[in-house]
User: What shape does this take?
Amino acid sequence: MINTINYNFNAQANSPGDNYGPGVTQSMVQLSVKIRSFNLTNIHGSKFDPGYLQDYDLNRLLSLSGSINTKIINIIRKELKDKDGTVYIFRHNEKKKFINHGIIIIGEAGNMAYKESWDDCQDSSDIISYMTRFVSKRSNHEILNDLKQS
Assistant: This one.
């Protein structure tokens, strides 16, 4: 059971049929997309310029989310320059519009590379801290420390 301080997020996350957790998902509360390394230039014998495949993945993320600014794109590029990873956006639906709470970037080994809530409200910070445990391989001790500090 998801139990953040945001009632609407909790209700949608805990509803039958919604999905959250590691991997690629498009649900009411989670949008996650695999992003290839900036430096990946060879796939299935085909050669690409550095960044081409990552740009392709980022364009998919942008089309699905509709709300990622240049600062976040640059952070994704920095964190996933030499490794593949998964970008998670946590959100909930309110009045037929998605409210995006923030982002978590997980490297290919399952370790958290970056997280940020996207507004100043405590709800978003709580949601991002809480959902980290479901998508990263961090220890319970590290996650509990994050929750105590938020």
User: Anything to note?
Assistant: The longest helix spans residues 52-65. The mean pLDDT is 88. The chain has one domain: 24-149. Residues 104 and 132 are 7 Å apart (CA to CA).
